[in-house]
Specification:
four-stranded antiparallel sheet; 181 residues; Jelly Rolls; mainly beta
Length: 181
Amino acid sequence: MAISSNPTDNEARKFVADANGDVTVRTTLAAGDINIGDVDVVSVPAPLNVSGGGTEASALRVTLANDSTGVLSVDDNGGSLTIDGTVTTNQIKSSTGTHSNITVAATSTVVLASNANRIGLAIKNNGTADIFLNFGGTAVTTNYPVSPGEEYLDSGNGVYTGAINGIVASGTENARVVEFA
């Protein structure tokens, strides 16, 4: 909220300065997403309920709404963060690796078909010239290059599950492909 150079009585009553020059703003923020900058919380009024003793008794609790994205960012100011209870991780594992040898031509060649269950892949260029990979479209020689003897690896969160096509500038080259699903 800004005050004009000639504030109305109503505008002026919303800002009160004490003897030290500290200004108190007396206004109500409308509901919704409002960014008011960095705020230091000195005290939290009721109905905040705190139970227990020690320093934790004065800790501010955080509750995630049930329609939340589940993402919570915590800034511990360089200290340490303690988690009470059990922490469970869902590690993605595969016991199936499908191996294939692909001959990549000077026209767009399917190197790996689309697979929604893919959790990892490796494509090694066993040839003598670059293989160019395209993710989701027709491969051309300006796409992602994999040099002879090098590998393209994709694993972890966010693995590409669409079709991968390859091309070489001329002739044919061999690639070794491993897909984990």
